[in-house]
């Protein structure tokens, strides 16, 4: 997704001809490779914007594998936390950390824009700074502390005191059947 157009042309040529020209050589060399490409960008959008070659996209897009971001798979966070704690804890476990329930809730609700790498770095930092202790919300970075973990009606919008007539609301909004 970040590859310059000139490099895209060269990569496409290599994929089509299965040959390369070693640096400084005046001959081509046949290669037999498989390419695994990864990106965090929307390649289809980049193709539409003319920032990524369409022919290279189709050449690379043989078996697309979409790995959801960490925010889309919050159920993995406890498993990853456990794994990273084990990874960074010393053999004698003197720097083992644990989390208060509120801290744990914040970690689950956070959107993790840096994905798994961000979570791994956080666990390593917490073990270094708080090893052997319980991690409180105040020990987390500000952006995680600010995550709203309250499960209240304001999250979904305010309901009128008199309640809602779901059948009437459905007619107004036209959003299919209301489930009660």
Question: Summary?
Answer:
The chain is 42% helix and 4% strand. The longest helix is centred in the C-terminal third of the chain and has 16 residues, at 115-130.
Q: What does the overall shape look like?
A: elongated
Estimate the helix proportion, in percent: 40-55%
Q: Could you name the ranges where pLDDT drops below 50 across 5 or more consecutive residues? A: 151-157, 172-180
Helix-strand pattern, N to C? HEEHHHEHHEHH
Tell me the structural class. mainly alpha
Strand fraction: under 5%
Number of helices: 8
Oligomer: single chain
Give the end-to-end Cα distance, rounded to a whole number of Å: 45 Å
Strand order of the largest sheet: 1-2
Report the biggest beta sheet as strand number plus sense, adding barrel if it closes.
2 strands, antiparallel
Number of strands: 4
Q: Which radius of gyration do the C-alpha atoms yield?
A: 25 Å
**What is the average per-residue confidence, as pLDDT, rounded to a whole number?**
85
Question: Could you characterize the architecture of this molecule?
Answer:
Residues 151-157 and 172-180 have low confidence and may be disordered. This protein is mainly α and 180 residues long. Helix 4 (77-88) crosses helix 6 (115-130). Strands 1-2 form a two-stranded antiparallel sheet. Helix content is 42%, strand content 4%. It has eight helices and four strands. It is elongated. It has helices at 5-17, 43-48, 54-60, 77-88, 101-109, 115-130, 142-145, 166-173; strands at 19-20, 29-30, 98-99, 134-135.
């Amino acid at each position: 997704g970040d590859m310059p157009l000139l490099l895209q042309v060269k990569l496409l040529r290599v994929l089509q001809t299965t040959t390369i020209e070693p640096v400084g050589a005046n001959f081509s060399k046949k290669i037999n490779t498989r390419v695994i490409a990864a990106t965090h960008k929307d390649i289809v959008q980049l193709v539409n914007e003319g920032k990524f070659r369409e022919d290279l996209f189709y050449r690379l897009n043989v078996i697309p594998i979409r790995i959801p971001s960490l925010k889309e798979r919050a159920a993995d966070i406890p498993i990853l936390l456990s794994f990273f704690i084990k990874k960074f804890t010393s053999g004698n476990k003197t720097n083992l950390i644990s989390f208060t329930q509120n801290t744990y809730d914040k970690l689950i609700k956070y959107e993790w824009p840096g994905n798994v790498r961000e979570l791994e770095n956080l666990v390593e930092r917490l073990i270094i700074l708080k090893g052997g202790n319980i991690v409180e919300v105040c020990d987390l970075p500000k952006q995680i502390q600010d995550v709203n973990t309250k499960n209240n009606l304001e999250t979904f919008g305010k309901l009128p005191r008199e309640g809602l007539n779901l059948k009437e609301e459905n007619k107004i909004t036209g959003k299919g059947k209301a489930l009660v």
